[in-house]
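User: What would this chain look like folded?
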Amino acid sequence: MVDGVRLSQIDETSRGDHYHLTAEDRCYYLYEYTSHRDYSFSATNQLISNLKKKPSQADQPHYWYKGQAIGTCGRALGAALNPAWLGNATLVPVPGSKATDHPEYDDRMERICRLMRQPAPDVRALVRQAASTTASHEAGQGDRVTVEHLLDLYSIDETIAAPAPQAIGIVDDVLTAGTHYRAMHTVLAARFPNVPIIGLFVARRVFPDDPLAFGGL
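Assistant: Here's the prediction, encoded as structure tokens.
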């Protein structure tokens, strides 16, 4: 990946690709992940592919790349953030699709957050997910989780809610429609009103120029 990459902000030119976001949302990303293309298409696609390797693959040689990807993402996000903000903010990882009691439970986002600086920043898994869902990148068009479904599953872990955050960064790997971000923002804003919230993403999803990727015109 490119050293010294800066965060880009979702704005009016890109917000339409992430239709759950509003003009008031402040969301930032490092790279662009191209949908409908495999890991060989770009360095970012390879990074995200490695990041999403399943825990059930831990005994396979290629699983080593997952740890490398987690380190790359943590260091890159940490280097791109304002150190003063990072020193005062609470990083809240988006829960993975699988609940903590599921064999495929994946804590990659929490691990990325903890690597953003040394010593580790304030990382709190403030939002719990009550049940497993189908991963977004594996779901069919009609099976994708909705904001309403996530709101039914999400709750605040009150055992780690104090002290109240001064600023919150919701952290996830890929910004697609913004479904998880919208649900996370709703739950956190209700619990911590007036606390500024931003979204931090390793990459945002973009679409290839080739219309055949969508079955042609």
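Residues 212-217 have pLDDT under 50 and may be disordered. If you want, I can go into more detail on any region.
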